[in-house]
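Final report, closing paragraph on structural work. Over the funding period we assembled a curated collection of sequence-structure pairs, and we close with a single example.
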Amino acid sequence: MQSRGNDDQIELIPITLKLIAMERAERDAFSFPVALSSYQPMPYRIGAGDILYITVWDHPELTVPAGPQQQLNAAGRLVQSDGTLFYPYIGKVPAAGKTPGQLREDITAKLARYIEAPQVDVSMLTYASQRVWVTGASRQPAAVPITVTPLTLADAISQSGLDSTQADLSGIRLTRDGITHVIDLDRISQDRVGANIYLKPADQIYVPYLDRKEVFVVGEVAQPGALNFRTGNISLSQALGRARGLLQTTSNGNAIYVIRGSGDVQQVPARVFHLEARSPAAFAVASQFELLPGDVVFVGAAGVTRWSRFVNQLLPFSAVISNAASTRNDLDGN
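Its predicted structure, as stored:
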């Protein structure tokens, strides 16, 4: 059952097992974007900037023209900006857009005019044409190359020099083809399929900082204030516990509220979830109700039993409500 407060600024929603089940189902449905799960990487195709090592067996003068003293990288063949590379005897060879296997077949066919039954091998020395970018809570912005081995989201984050003490893996933003997907890597890493999110060239990954992941506990609790949390989620009971619990002499166990504000409470009502915590069973419900970054937990004083009186007490916290909504909107937008 839902009710509205003064001027429709607040919408009251009881916290029940049914509500928890509905919210959990909604989170699970969106925790792994279907658009990402359907992508399968194609075989690696050579591009401008890549450096290849081309071996012609029994012909070291072609493999390492300057002799065995030449460094391996110096013997590499750079793919030029026009997508070609130069090779002795056959001159410019189109390389961009081909797999290493296809390029090997082309070079073999062209060298066969000059060498009897050439045996050619093409391998990659340097990957430079395809990459993804990782920013945010990494030690420095990183460009991670895509190689012949498909690159997953987890691999890219681990290779970017992620600062594990600051990174929030439950709110990763992956931008692909102009669309941003929010991914809870903590949650989907438990799923065999979800753990293999393959990346495309030019994907952009933003890992948010943990210092923006907090909830607020105010009212009749022993230690009110802002609470940071490092895990993927924090429950209502955990937040109350970290606030050292309710004040036994002044708090009303029937007046525990979770405020999930909107950007403009005059236009869109703030959602307020109500927990009746007088019975022990209520704390079992509270342990399953997950808070979101920016939520405000409010514990009313004893004697505030009517909804109208609660609204009058709550409305002075409108600045906190707006700040909660702004915090969550900022997190969603990064």
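The first strand starts at residue 3 and ends at 4. Residues 318-333 form the longest helix (16 residues). We thank the funder for supporting this effort.
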